[in-house]
Design brief:
twelve-stranded mixed beta sheet; ten-stranded mixed beta sheet; alpha/beta
């Protein structure tokens, strides 16, 4: 047995208390809790968490959210992390009932995933999870986006741990839009676990526009010829962490990780993206953008890891930030680890302020300074916002981008 890191803190004690009060135990729950005990809570030795304000985090006394009745939405509804109802035709099953049906998929996935997991918050989120399994059968194609509404009614220091498991069989295709609608503040630890068989395609968009602090974890295992696309848009959260781990396990798998954060005040956004190329002829593209105002902070750490057998890899990584105040700071650490000799790989970071020459040029064309600034901010964000599948959300976000010019 591996040595346990039993370093007590208010947060550690609160999380272990929630675990021992949990009644429903899927096979992977004890595995996840054991991994959490092995890893312990992050310290400043954990590079991904070094700039997070660990003392404040460790002092949180998180308690489980109460269960209440909730009106269902058109789509799949979760309330305080628990599956309520589905009005979609897909096969949806509460996680607590999934083992008997999907054990053949879930057991190998979680045994290997948790054995390699390095993030304690993913581990404890899995140990405390509730949520839903979404299964798309062989060759089934879902053309219209499936909407998942995670509604939370939390008081300060209350927490929820929703888990959404996607199982896409061979040739299946699915488009998903995840909405987080918070009635109050609180802490949401959401995990997306994606099991993708040969030639499957999954497009996952996360829209987070409320004032809940949230941790979002995406774990993906892709087989031959599969395609995974992800977009995460964050605005309004006092703190957010987006953590990706994607494994391209067979030839010709492809993934796109995209994100946009719009921050002001003292808001914080952390993004960690790790893509592991395990097979030849795979492609990965990471592109994240941030707009920062006032005293906000963003942290990006990306890594494309290419194994020695993963010849003909194509890996791209870019972080771009637009700084709109003297006190805002963007940190970026793109990284490549390459052990193959026949690859195409690039990584970079670019942090800028609005160019005064461009601003002046637009003003000479009769555009006011305020409108010119809004135009440039919108142009910076538009590449990501054009990917948003819901027109009303896209329009609202474009308006928000313009409002930043007046702040």
């Amino acid at each position: 047995m591996k040595k346990l890191k039993l370093i007590s803190s208010v947060l550690f004690d609160a999380l272990t208390k929630q675990y021992h009060a949990k009644k429903d135990r899927l096979f992977f729950v004890p595995l996840a809790y054991q991994k959490f005990l092995e890893l312990g809570l992050p310290t400043k030795q954990n590079e991904c968490y070094r700039n997070m304000g660990l003392k404040r985090l460790n002092d949180l006394n998180l308690v489980a959210a109460p269960q209440k009745k909730c009106l269902t939405q058109k789509g799949i509804t979760l309330f305080n992390g628990k599956f309520v109802a589905s009005q979609e035709k897909l096969f949806c099953q509460p996680i607590q009932e999934a083992n008997a049906i999907f054990g053949a998929f879930l057991y190998p996935f979680y045994t290997s995933l948790l054995d390699e997991e390095t993030d304690p918050f993913y581990a404890i989120s899995t140990a405390l999870c509730s949520g839903v399994v979404i299964h798309v059968s062989k060759e089934r194609v879902s053309t219209e986006p499936i909407h998942i509404y995670n509604i939370t009614d939390l008081q300060k220091n209350q927490s929820v741990f929703p888990k959404i498991i996607f199982i896409l069989e061979k040739g299946a295709k699915l488009n998903v839009v995840y909405h987080h609608n918070a009635l109050e503040e609180g802490f949401c630890f959401v995990t997306f676990d994606c099991i993708m068989q040969e030639n499957s395609k999954l497009n996952l968009q996360q829209i987070h526009l409320d004032h809940t602090s949230h941790f979002s974890f995406v774990r993906v295992q892709q087989k031959r010829d599969s395609l995974f696309k992800s977009l995460h848009v964050t605005k309004g959260a006092p703190f957010c962490l987006n953590d990706y781990k994607v494994q391209l396990t067979q030839e010709n798998a492809e993934c796109f990780l995209n994100g946009l954060w719009m921050l002001n005040g003292k808001q914080r956004a952390h993004t960690n993206a790790f893509v592991e190329h395990q097979a030849p002829y795979c492609r990965s593209f990471q592109h994240f953008k941030g707009v920062l105002l006032e005293q906000s902070r963003s942290y990006f750490e990306g890594n494309s890891f290419v194994h020695n057998q993963a010849q003909k890899t194509d890996a791209f990584q870019l972080n771009q930030n637009l700084i709109l105040s003297d006190d805002a700071i963007a940190h970026a650490k793109p990284k490549l680890e390459i052990f193959a000799d026949d690859v195409k790989a690039s990584h970079g970071s670019n942090t800028v302020q609005i160019e005064q020459e461009l601003l002046f040029y637009l003003q000479t064309r009769g555009i006011s300074k305020k409108r010119a600034k809004a135009f440039l901010i919108e142009a910076f964000c538009k590449e990501m916002l054009e990917k948003v599948k819901i027109e009303t959300v896209k329009e609202a976000l474009l308006e928000d981008a313009q409002i930043l010019s007046t702040t």
